[in-house]
Every structure is written in C-alpha cells, then in structure tokens.
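By way of example, we now present a protein record of this kind:
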Amino acid sequence: MHRLAGRLVRLAILVSAALALPGAPASAGPASDLIAKLNAVFLGVMQNAKTLGYEGRYKTLEPALADAYDFPEMMRVSTGRHWRDLTDDQKKQAIAAFEDYSVATYAARFDGFGGERFEVLGEETAPGGNLRVNNQIVPTSGAPIRIDYLLRQDAGQWRIIDVYLKSSVSELAVRRAEFTDILSKSGFDGLMADLKTKVAKLRTEGAAAAN
C-alpha cells in the first residue's frame, strides 16, 4: 500500500512538471477574477462552517464549483484510455459522480475558520492556450500554502481543469493514477462504487465535525 502511494505521488509530480512548466507572465483578467470569486465563496463557507453544517456547506459550494470547474474534461482526463470505452450514459454518470466527490471533499475540508485569507498572485501562460493562476492561502501564522489552478477557455469562459497542491503536485494526475487503476481492476462499476463510498465517508466525517 505504501509503495502504491509512493508511486502515485511520484507520478503526480512528474505529470504536473510536464503540464505546468512556467510560461510568460499574463496580465490579470477573467481567469484571475474567477479564482478570486471562488476564493470568496470558500472564505464565506469557512467563516460560517459551523452554522451551515456539512449539508449547508455542500449546497453552498455545489453551484460555485459547477461554474468554476470543467468537470467533464477533468473526468475525461482522469479515466485515461478507458473513457472511450464508456457509453454515453456511463460518461454522464462518471461526470456526476466526480462532481459529487469534488464538492463533498471541499465541504468536508472547509469545516472551520482560523483567520486565513486567500490571495491571487497572478497569471502565467501555459501550454495549449491555457492559463495558470497562482494562488495561496495565508494563515494567521506560518508560511502561506500555495494552491494554484490551471484553466482553459471553453465557449468563452475560463474554467478550472487542474489544481496544483503546494504549487507542484497535480491533483488531476493523482486522480488519473487512482481512477485508471480502479477501472483496470474493477471496471466502471468498481469506480462508481469507490466514489460513492468516498462521498459517504466524507459526509459522515463532515457531519461529525460539526457536532
């Protein structure tokens, strides 16, 4: 298990390094505005975490994340070569399950407020006409935590297609390693069951944290 975890992290670092090579600085615009708007939602949820409870946080975050993230593209990449083998109905189910899991993760994660603030640091051009928006969480003490975003433009709107934790580890690369492994071993039903189990665990933990 530890060896598998180590391989996933190494793969994430290698893929993120390939995808996120720094480009030329770009002036702030709609992509940075999107991240600033998302940060404001995150901050509001954190500040009102106990009042909202897990379910309230989920309901508040769901529309914000649906607007900011390109979940269909992220799920397509996360399933790798298996995507083309899925039926249209399975693809819809997979996207919905991935969105549910993503929202549940944020709802469980943002369960309190300790005076943190968010800062958008600027933009960089990225391969494929994409943009990387550099961003960080600044705690009341200690070093800032970088959480950067890769965005692509779809129908005139910038949307997130990857998140870089600590400015280096691609969350999408980790998901791809995890999801393709499950699909290879357990198929589509196995992946859906795994995501459903993860969401149920996040809901239980999130509800317990509110008490």
